[in-house]
Amino acid sequence: MNRLKPHAEGTLHKKLVYIRNNWQLYVFFMLPALALTIVFKYLPMGGLAIAFQDYNNRKGIWGSDFIGFAHFMRFLSSPDFITLMANTLKLSIYGLLWGFFPPVILAIIMSRIRSAGIKRNIQLLIYAPNFISVIVMSGMIITFLSPVGPVNQLLGTSSNLMTDPNAFRPIYIASGIWQGAGWASIIYTATLSGVSSELVDACNIDGASLFQQILNIDIPTLKPIMVIQFILSAGQIMSIGFEKALALQTDLNRAASEIIPTYVYKMGLQIGDYSYSTAVGLFNSVINVILLITVNTIVSRLNEGEGL
Amino acid sequence: MESRQFYTRKDKFVLWLGYTLLGTFVLAILVPLIYVILASFIDPVVLTNQGISFNPDHWTLEGYRRVFQDDMIVRGFINSFVYSTVFAAFSTLVCLLAAYPMSIPQFVGRKVFNTLFVITMFFGGGLMPTYLLISNMGLIDSPLALILPGAVNVWNIILARTYYKSIPNELHEAAMIDGATDVQYFFQILIPLCKPIIMVLVLYQFVGMWNSYFDAMIYLEDPSLQPLQLVIRSILVQNTPRPGMVSDAQNAAMMAKIAEQLKYSTIVVSSLPLLIMYPFFQKYFEKGVMMGSVKG
Fold it and tell me: What pTM value is reported for the model?
């Protein structure tokens, strides 16, 4: 049981002795998570092989014909490709750009509130929408914007924004900020509360205005966290908010709401073209990984070696 | 940062600009939520014709009666509660267990396991391969299809591992000298010291399962197994109230009005459990975010 006992010649032997002496760590602690990961995460990765096959449910993954990159070529040359790519990128990049700064601004403003009680209540309120489910969120949007809903009543109109492709992205992004900005500000609020009061005092003595203080203390304090948050969001660009897009999708707003993940769902589970759907999904994840690595490299260059 | 005593006029302007922005955001969050709650009590005809009314005659509990008399909603509630509880308990246990060896520096194979887990955060088989696997395992129409695939949450393993590392290693050494096994040390000493992190993980997983619908939509075909989110999806998103809910309407126009009003009561009822638990557990949710940021 003593894992500090160094009594062997080769490193391999030493490792084996360690494993034998500490078998509980492997069998009892590691095995459940490991088995679940291999079965539910790595087996499906093996299943990606059907992207290169003419998959047939009856023949299965071992019996279906290998057809190489045909499905990828079909996707890349299909008229849908440009639209899907544009919809996916616009939705996530606009979402990232519009949604990135509100949490930072919220945190900076909240750090100036002196009354702890007021601050507490504001936090309680603005964090709450984060716990609303995708379905309820989408239901609220659809109900508020329905032709007989409150928004139309207020404006005295009866338009149906859910069927308007031009309205889809603003609705999607604005509701995303409504739901997530407060929650996303937590991390910035926590960072700002760690600012040393000496720094602030020094700033005051030097006669810095409030605006200068924000610019020279708050922003530099928040910058490293902002960089990390940005990289994390950029890594999600191709896989963003699929469930909400699906819930808000109607036949009439499809021109803007059909993004690659919803297309993968439609082609795979609704139309039943398993191989093609898998190929499109694989294409999407590969782009996603490339994006993550690229953004991480660029940001760490710009940020003196500080990436993820 | 609140030691500033004096504000110049320019400072005050900046400050009030900020407060106005914040106030607008707070109102933007508050108004829709209050509207939903008020609308859930209003007579359907009044609501669609003139909106919110403060005339007591226009207030009614009909919306709630319709929601609660529907078996599917009640069943969805029970299903969701069972799935979320089992999932939260199972997932947290698996993650707490896996995080333990990962927190031991000399654990042989730590790097390999770590890489194996982290890869799954960024890359996966995707929709169809996962669906085919679940289907081939015979898990269609089994709640296990909701519980098993998402049980290993790598992020939660990292959180737990970070937490274990904050606990003095002397405890571990002392237990080992006393002849305890790793299993004994884990359950009798380590876990009792980890209540805060366990609370965070259980709550996160519970809320995650309660709010999800996609896996249930593709894996559960039997209506009696559906979780609440799937039941309310047809009411809220697909605009098709359950037949029994609007059966007393005299005509199609009336039915449409009732269906519209019903959505508000449905939203309130389905969000109730989280709304009730949220203020009590808010500090744990916040703590989770913080712990995640300490070591990413």
Answer: 0.90
